[in-house]
Design brief:
The structure is a single chain. It contains 19 helices and ten strands. The protein is of the alpha/beta class. The chain folds into two domains: 313 residues, Up-down Bundle (ABC transporter transmembrane region fold), CATH 1.20.1560.10; 241 residues, Rossmann fold (3-Layer(aba) Sandwich). Strand 7, helix 17 and strand 8 form a beta-alpha-beta unit. It is elongated. The structure holds adenosine-5'-triphosphate and magnesium ion.
């Protein structure tokens, strides 16, 4: 319950519109209570057998006034409640997105994009239902039940007491329904999230599906997920389907009670005719709100099931955060790893006691077979992941004591799998420094050897490059990402396989761009193609998560260790000896 409060606090700023909604609803309820009373008065007037035409006219006018008020209040109820709900939903979604954005990368490793999207969009959507419909409906119906009770008891206490008989049964069924339906709705929401997730993945991977002609297989997989949504939603709705007729039946018993006992009382002259009619008219207003409360309960169960899923995210705290006294410093760029060990998954060590130092402005290369942890080392420097033990120092300061934003502002990363956003070339380069001038962007693109090809694109710098930059070639994307890094001009540079997967001509262009970018920067270069790391000030060779040798290219060749054998394997046979 405390958790739900966490979600409801977002409604606070919209207190006033919520109060207006409730006032409007109270007015509607009031008018609904007065209307049958007018009919009762009419019957009373008619059965008095006095030709009181004046009273009938007044009654008609009163009823018109009641209906006008009711119409205005109904408009208020409908519009203001939706206004409140959507404002609330907007704030909650923004909060949820901002929270997700703060979570550490480790969190995303186990999550699917579509699944998270579903929580932001679908799960929060049920809260709109709750705020716009459930909360006001509950209030109105409770008011209605109270109002009707007072009127019924005013008219005839014994008969009113008799009409209460079905209520405990209705309450028991409503409560039982909550217990059964909530878990079912939660599963249904999970199935919707699974569907979202597979759709998201398949649409992104459409090329692979076509290339491997897996359309049939994927169509079956997606079909299954779609079917599952229906199956599980129907399971939940089946419970509702049993629930509603049961409630209706119990309400019907109430009418039987009034007919049976009310009829007898009227025959015995203990209940005036107008009261008997009013009883029957009010009875609809008595059980109907109770049934409505039950129905709302269904929406509420659905919303609570979703709330669980939203809260699961909101209650996850980012594990990489600024300590209270984090420092904002000017970074020169020396990097030191002291005995750093790390694992992504408990008990599977990836890095074991890694220690090395990169002086500011120097280039350090990390080489070694695939999967030894080179990229992992690179990920620890901007604290994308937290080192398990040991320390990473930048300019002699533990990176945990530097403000995350400050740390990351001082690091540029260029990697093989470039991610560009759906937008223009200009917007993507500006990502490195949003306040840069156009001239600065062009200068950066020139340094990155990207300017020429950009000018040949349809709209130059304003060309839209599609999702993830699909409209560009690998080498072009690479150079835009270098331009981005040039513009960022951070003192620390991480190049992870930045030149692989392009032809030699483009590689030369990229290498040339990188050389310009690396000038005066501390660079960590990761490359399989060893020719690109020969000039590094120091080469660190990794094997199974540990450093096994390090030194300059010449020193390592002489040492005849892993590096020299890796080199030998890469030199074409024709060039050996
Ligand atoms: N997010 C992750 N979660 C769990 N394990 C991971 C994750 N990322 C990498 N690993 C594992 O950590 C190990 C080191 O991976 P890493 O990417 O650092 O290797 P690498 O040296 O960069 O390899 P390559 O040369 O192929 O790029 C691998 O065994 C990999 O399976
Ligand atoms: Mg790697």
């Amino acid at each position: 319950m405390k958790d739900i409060k966490h979600l409801l606090k977002f409604i606070k700023p919209y207190k006033i519109s919520l109060i207006v909604t409730i006032l409007c609803m109270a007015t509607v309820t009031g008018m609904n209570l007065v209307a049958p009373w007018m009919i009762r008065t009419l019957i009373q007037t008619v059965s008095d057998n006095i030709a009181n035409y004046q009273k009938i006219s007044t009654l008609s006018i009163l009823v018109i006034v009641i209906y006008i008020f009711r119409a205005i209040a109904q408009f208020g109820t409908s519009y203001v409640s939706h206004y409140t709900a959507w404002q609330y939903l907007k704030d909650l979604r923004i909060h949820l997105y901002n929270h997700i954005q703060k979570l550490s990368l480790k969190y995303f490793d186990d999550k699917q994009t579509g699944e998270l999207m579903s929580r932001i969009i679908n799960d929060t959507r049920t809260f709109e239902q709750m705020t716009a419909h459930a909360i006001p409906t509950i209030i109105v119906n409770v008011l209605m039940v109270l109002g009707v009770s007072i009127i019924l008891f005013y008219m005839n206490i014994p008969l009113a007491l008799l009409t209460l008989i079905p209520i405990p049964f209705i309450v028991i069924i409503v409560l039982k329904f909550s217990l059964i339906s909530r878990p079912k709705f939660k599963v249904a929401q999970e199935k919707i999230a699974e569907l979202n997730s597979i759709l998201q993945e398949n649409i992104s991977g459409i090329k692979e599906i076509k290339a491997f002609t897996q359309e049939e297989y994927e169509s079956k997989r997606v079909g299954e997920k779609i079917t599952n949504v229906s199956i599980y939603l129907l399971k939940a709705l089946k419970v509702s389907a049993v629930f509603h007729p049961t409630i209706q039946f119990l309400s019907g018993i109430g009418t039987v009670i009034v007919i049976f006992f009310g009829g007898r009382l009227a025959l015995a002259g203990k209940l005036p005719l107008e009261d008997l009619v009013a009883f029957i008219l009010y009875l609809g207003n008595f059980y109907q709100p109770i049934t409505a409360l039950g129905q709302i309960n269904e929406g509420l169960q659905q919303a609570l099931a979703s709330a669980d899923r939203v809260l699961e995210v909101l209650n996850t705290q980012p594990d990489i955060i600024d300590p209270p006294n984090a420092r904002d410093i000017k970074i020169e760029g020396s990097i030191e790893f002291q005995d750093v060990s790390f694992m992504y998954i408990d008990s599977i060590p990836v890095l074991k006691n890694v220690s090395f130092k990169a002086e500011a402005g120097k280039t350090i290369a990390l080489v070694g077979p695939t999967g030894v942890g080179k990229t992992t080392i690179a990920r620890l420097i901007p604290r994308f992941y937290e080192a398990g033990s040991g320390k990473i120092l930048i300019d002699g300061i533990d990176i945990k004591d530097i403000k995350l934003s400050c740390l990351r502002k001082h690091i540029s990363i260029v990697s093989q799998d470039v991610f560009l956003f759906n937008g223009t070339v200009l917007e993507n380069i500006l990502y490195g420094k949003p306040d840069a001038t156009f001239d600065e962007v062009v200068a950066a693109a020139k340094t990155a050897n990207a300017h020429d090809f950009i000018m040949k694109l349809k709209d130059g710098y304003n060309t839209h490059i599609g999702e993830r930059g699909v409209k560009l070639s690998g080498g072009q994307k690479q150079r835009i990402s270098i331009a981005r890094a040039v513009l960022k001009n951070a003192p620390i540079l991480i190049l992870d396989e930045a030149t692989s997967s392009v032809d030699t001509q483009t590689e030369r262009l990229i290498q040339d761009a990188l050389n310009k970018l690396m000038k005066n920067k501390t660079s960590i270069v990761i490359a399989h193609r060893l020719s690109t790391v020969e000039n590094a000030n120091r080469i660190i060779v990794l094997e199974e998560g540990s450093i096994i040798e390090s030194g300059s290219h010449e020193e390592l060749l002489k040492a005849k260790g892993l590096y020299s054998s890796l080199c030998a394997a890469q030199i074409p046979v024709s060039l050996q000896l």
